[in-house]
Write a structure and sequence with these properties.
By secondary structure, the protein is of the alpha+beta class. It has a domain at 20-94 and 105-171: Roll (Pnp Oxidase, Chain A). Helix content is 19%, strand content 31%. It has five helices and nine strands, in the order H-E-E-E-H-E-E-E-H-H-E-E-E-H. The chain has helices at residues 27-36, 74-80, 122-136, 149-153, 214-219, and strands at residues 39-45, 51-61, 64-70, 85-97, 105-115, 118-119, 155-161, 164-170, 188-191. Strands 1, 2, 3, 4, 5, 6, 7, 8 and 9 form a nine-stranded antiparallel β-sheet that branches. The mean pLDDT is 93.
């Protein structure tokens, strides 16, 4: 029997309290944000009470987020041992320029996931590494060398279920109070567009391999 997952923001810990009208409870919208991001941040508190935030490559697979890092990392070992974590992804879509500094803000899409990580092993671990690679560099995995046994041993792969999460999106323009509207100040939005630059070949690339792969050109089309 299929388990129904709670909507984003439906728990006491994930309910959006600051500007609650920006909260989004659609799980498909959460998926869209996670799929569009390239870097996430994994936060935890170590045994001394010191908080840490780790930037990580990741991928979404169904109702889970997959992350990887060094198996020798003390912080990754804490995650693997069951330490509670907070994972976030934020997409900055532009700046909102109001007529006052106080009302100026950002357009953004921000996802947060709370929970505990599971450690992946064997075939599940190898598949997760491929999914992370394909999330960052689509279509490249089939032509590169796959991880060796030594490399797999040195890499930890964690799975974080999307059981408790929240999503907040701001896509509006400035909301100036009436008394500021007549101020002689430009107001509006300045969108921020993410794009890939021109590929730069490695210095030791063989001449016969100088043609840029078609899939790199297609990466431009997936930016959202």
């Amino acid at each position: 029997m299929e388990t129904l997952l709670a909507n984003p923001g439906s728990t006491e810990r994930t309910r959006v309290r600051r500007i609650p009208e920006l909260a989004v409870t659609d799980r498909s919208a959460l998926h869209d944000v996670l799929d569009a991001g390239l870097v996430g941040h994994l936060a935890l508190v170590d045994e001394t009470g010191q908080p840490y935030v780790l930037p990580v490559a990741y991928a979404r697979e169904g109702e889970s987020v997959l992350v990887h890092g060094s198996a020798a990392s003390r912080l990754f070992r804490l995650c693997a041992a069951g330490a509670p974590v907070c994972f976030t992804v934020t997409l900055l879509d532009g700046l909102v320029l109001a007529r006052s500094a106080f009302e100026s803000s950002m357009n953004y899409r921000s996802a947060m996931v709370l929970g505990h990580c599971n450690v992946l092993h064997g075939r599940a671990k190898e598949l997760a590494l491929r999914l992370i690679s394909e999330h960052l560099m689509p279509e490249r995995w089939p032509e590169v060398r796959e991880p060796s046994a030594k490399e797999l041993k040195a890499t930890a792969v964690l799975e974080l279920p999307l059981d408790e999460c929240s999503l907040k999106i701001n896509a509006d323009g400035p909301d100036d109070p009436a008394e500021d509207v007549e101020l002689p100040v430009w107001a509006g939005r300045v969108p921020l567009v993410r794009q890939w630059g021109e590929p730069v070949a490695a210095d030791d690339l063989k001449p016969e391999l100088s043609r840029i792969p078609d899939y790199i050109t297609r990466w431009q089309q997936r930016i959202s």
